[in-house]
Amino acid sequence: MSSGQATVYIIDDEIQIRTAIGSLCEETGHQVKLFASTDEFVAGSISDGPSCLVLDVRFPGTAPTGLELQRRLAETGVLIPIVFISGHSDVRVSVEAMKRGAVEFLPKPFREQEILDAIRHGIERDRRRLEREDSVREARQRVETLTAREREIMLLMAEGLVAKQIAARLGVSEVTAKVHRTRMMRKLELRSPIEVVRLVDSMGREEETTRTGTGQPYS
After folding, report:
1. How far apart are CA 61 and CA 182, in angstroms?
2. Within 13 Å, how many C-alpha atoms sit on residue 24's CB side?
3. Handedness of CA 151, 211, 84, 9 (dihedral sign)
4. Where do runs of H (alpha helix) occur along 58-192?
5. What is the CATH code for 7-128?
6. What is the side-by-side order of every strand in the sheet holding 51-56?
7. Rounded to two decimals, what is the model's pTM?
8. 39 neighbors 175 (Cβ within 8 angstroms)
């Protein structure tokens, strides 16, 4: 999922601007999808691979603004990196966009290299996110192979407990605790207690993301 051709989504009501940016992205090997409004984009879907959204701030009529779309994407769990572009100099809007996690805020006119650098940064950020999600998904699959006792020991190790303390907590001998710990580490393909801590921590963050509605596919 984290490898392969990246997709750049460009939303701007000015056809010259969106086609110009689109051409630049295609020349650098990216797949490109163009939209004249945020409504058009909302009616579509986002690919599973690495991507970046180039988004104008203002649109005519009743279409959601760029900030409104950014907020809607966050609320529905779409984590696509956003590069804002704008023909209006508005410090308040740019600060708000960056606080919400935008990759960059570029006032028009901007140089070709500026937009390309911002898009590259966004794609790299998204690629790293997908790689982390892949790692967590693989770890979850390995955790599913653990017995109930091995899972208990994994969680106690993540709390920082050593074999003697784990044995006391579970009411088993230290030898028994060590045997289960060894089997657990082998199944999870981990080599040290710190790796167990990182695994449990990453799984906890993933569960929180799911519970709060983030990280879900957008369509």
Report:
1. 63
2. 18
3. positive
4. 66-75, 91-99, 112-143, 148-158, 163-170, 174-188
5. 3.40.50.2300
6. 31-35, 7-11, 51-56, 82-86, 104-107
7. 0.76
8. no
Domain-by-domain residue ranges, the chain? 7-128, 145-211
What is the rounded distance in angstroms from the CA atom of residue 7 to the CA atom of residue 5? Answer: 7
Q: Tell me the mean pLDDT in the region 136-148.
A: 90
> Is the predicted pLDDT of residue 4 greater than 80, yes or no?
no
83, β-bridge pairs: 54, 104
Tokens at residue 87, please? 């023909």
User: Which of 140-154, 172-186, 199-213 bottoms out in mean pLDDT, i.e. has the lowest?
Assistant: 199-213
What's the rounded mean pLDDT across residues 42-63? 91
pLDDT score recorded for residue 201: 86
Q: Please check whether the domain covering 145-211 is classified as CATH 1.10.10.10.
A: yes
3-state secondary structure of 44: coil
Three-state DSSP class for 107? strand
Say if residues 53 and 82 touch (Cβ distance below 8 Å): yes
